[in-house]
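Problem 12. The chain below contains 78 residues. Write out its predicted structure in token notation.
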Amino acid sequence: MKLFADDVKVYLRITSANDVTKLQQALDLIAGWAEKWQRLLSAVEKCYVVPIGKPTVNAAYYTDNKELPQLPNVKTWG
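Solution.
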């Protein structure tokens, strides 16, 4: 995970269905933290998945009961 100001990057090398579960659990933990501290994930529409390399496992990820879109590439910080 990388943090910058009010942004966060969560990433994991996905090689199995178990890795998909781990990444989804990380997203769920972030959402749970936000709810516990009454911090809304107000920019969910700015959240996305960026696969790097050829995906070995196809998966969808969710936060706030919304599927995160996949983007082929993105300009980003660090």
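Discussion. The chain has one domain: 2-67. Students who got a different answer should revisit the alignment rule from Section 12.3.
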